Amino acid sequence: MAIYLKKFETHTQYDAYINGSDAILPNVSICTTEGDVHYNPSTPPTPVETRVVAIFNVEDISYTTRIIGSGTENCFSAIEIDGTELSSVEEYYQFNTTGEHTVKYTLSDPTTIGDNAFGDSEMKSVIIPNGVTSIGENAFGACYDLESVIIPSSVTYIGNMAFDEDGSLINVTIFNPIPPTLEGMMVFNYVPGPIYVPSGSVNAYKTASEYWISLAEMIQAIP
């Protein structure tokens, strides 16, 4: 007995999963044998990432790469590199190939990036997941290769020297419409900027506190 599937306006509206195999459906599809048919949107929702995601650009594999701050392994419960979970959390890692590598960090406390967590690490970019509310002191300090950081709307506190001496950091994006509390004058010390914030909050950031006022010239609306 044939199973007729629902007709859609266009064949791109849905894909399907038939008897354990993916299938691309025309406007009308027929299964010649009985089986389960599961419909999925042709554009599935993007999964929410709960880990800190960093990109490292490795130019020389003869050297190990610092992937976390010194002595801060208690900040993380697990680390995944290029899709492979490490058996332990180590300060340095030996990459086998040059080029860009993705490292994902599971935080021991999903709301907190601890003090010194990534200090002196060699990451090129980092995305902090929504749910993190606090970035600790010197969390990303002296990350000389760091060029881009995305800070979600959940972050309400950034510790002193969190991005101190990050001289390559030319793109800081903060999504919280309410300026996070900055703990000191050196949070973005030596960062060239700019610092992008929600378009309706530019003035709020520039006048939020003496620490934000000192960064006023760097603050711009998110493009």
Characterize the biggest β-sheet: 9 strands, mixed
Our count of domains comes out at 2
Strand adjacency order, main sheet: 9-8-11-6-13-15-17-19-20
Strand content: 25-35%
CATH architecture of the largest domain: 3-Layer(aba) Sandwich
Q: How big is the Rg?
A: 23 Å
**What is the CATH class designation of the largest domain?**
Alpha Beta
Nearest-integer average pLDDT: 85
Task: Report the strand count.
Answer: 20
The helix-and-strand class reads: mainly beta
**Oligomeric state of the chains?**
single chain
3D structure, described in words:
There is one protein chain. The chain has 223 residues and is mostly beta strands. The protein folds into 2 domains: 39 residues, no CATH class; 170 residues, Rossmann fold (3-Layer(aba) Sandwich), CATH 3.40.50. 4% of the residues lie in helices and 31% in strands. It is built from 2 helices and 20 strands. The strands form 5 sheets. The chain has a 9-stranded mixed sheet with strand order 9-8-11-6-13-15-17-19-20. A 4-stranded parallel sheet has the order 12-14-16-18, with no helix packed on it. Strands 3-2-5 form a 3-stranded antiparallel sheet, with no helix packed on it. The radius of gyration is 23 Å and the shape is globular.
